[in-house]
Amino acid sequence: MKSPLPTRYWFFAAVVIAFVASLVLWNDGWAWRVLAFASGFLTVVGVTDIAQTRRTLPRNFPILAHVRYFFETIRPMMRQYVVEADDDEVPFSHDQRAIVYQRAKLALETRPFGTERNVYAANYEWINHSMMPTEIEHHDFRVPVGGPDCTQPYSASVFNISAMSFGSLSPNAIRALNEGARRGGFYHDTGEGSLSPYHREMGGDVVWELGSGYFGACERAGVFSEERFVERAVLPQVRMIELKLSQGAKPGHGGMLPGAKVTREIALTRGVPEGEDCISPARHSAFDTPEGLLRFIARLRTLSGGKPTGFKLAIGHPWEWFGIAKAMLTTGIRPDFIVVDGGEGGTGAAPMEFADHVGAPLREALLLVHNTLVGLGLRDEVRIGAAGKIITGFDVARTLALGADWCNAARGFMFALGCIQSQTCHTDHCPTGIATQDAKRWRALDVPDKAERVKNFQQNTLRALRELVAAAGLRHPGELGPEHIIRRVSGNEVRSLAVLYPFVRPGELLDGVPEHAVFQRFWPEARADAFTPPAGVAEMRWSKLV
Question: What CATH number should be reported for the domain whose range is 142-480+495-500?
């Protein structure tokens, strides 16, 4: 028989029992009196933990959570720990969480004694400042999104919430994220799990992401339905439509929600049968060529009433992206925006090899997309968003300098909700009530408090970005270029990103092929009417098999 008391409360229950027993046996010796004082104190702590709303972890794990807090207090919260990698320095998430927590909780951000980074280590980066810094009045930097075929353009913030689905996240986590977005004036991407009632409840701006399952807009998983799409797409709260081709954490890989987990609520949200396996295919069924993709984008834009419509992708085979770019010329159809998702992006669950070794990292992927659009003279018509381990104001500045118009983040906003990276997202046992459908856990997440922290993190990150942009002598993040960001490449050499990375001249792809290896190799044979590899690649592949 299942215990009515969740296991996470057993320790607290044992403390209460010990307290009651020690009171009963108070006169039987001094040991019982000591136990009474100790257990009584812990009982008060436990009751306080359950009653308070600011911290989810002690609400779910009364008394025990303080053990974790103790160990956090005895380590330097802002100390930089790095893992030496072949090509870069990868900060541990402890430092990232500390930055987010401080900004979310409005804690003091200044640091004594200067940087703790080794400024002479390879890959150390900084932004060059100006002798004539500017004064920027506000930090609410906006980017207009919507081309000539868009009748309902949207003014997007330069820092928004990346795609995280209901089902992966709990109802209260979705509520808090969306309310935070509403308070701060930025958008909340729904993820491919559809536009749920929890996204709509708080009224924050939403970008509706459609994956290969077309959840919320399907006859059945993987089969698109115009009628069901229109029902949600025309809602005023839905500001943009994003078609997901692939995501950075597991590109080229679909997913499945087992029928046992497809509850009535999930079924209604996604538009699939209750109790049946919910399959997210690895590829789309609505198109099978680059030109077909763009026609589908145009179709979605029309059906939504002219809202900005684009797609998200992680870069894999370069010729497939080049085929999409060529299709923009052959069809005359332009997406209003493209979101580039780096291979370092996160997810609730992904096969290990996919998370570690599939998909181009954000910088290289972003540069390829940016350079291609510049080379075709289309960069002013198509906006670019970027996502992939973006946490700080400097992360945003560097990403914009490399060609993005705005940035999305998931990890940072998860930290703002209280995520401790217990890495139990896929088990339904998330201790903080964020990545779970266990109502006993997610109800402990206080929506108003966490929503304020979500807003604070975004606003304070933009304030940090404003200070960086002003220090560089600029007036808007859109003015940042690769020449502003400097990287140490060795103990005695530094280079700007403008020197380290290749950049294509405006219109260069219309007149010929740039002197860059990836364009030289794959651009001439990329096809707008097929995703198939260039002939040389196919021949090489078959020669290895014969």
Answer: 3.20.20.70
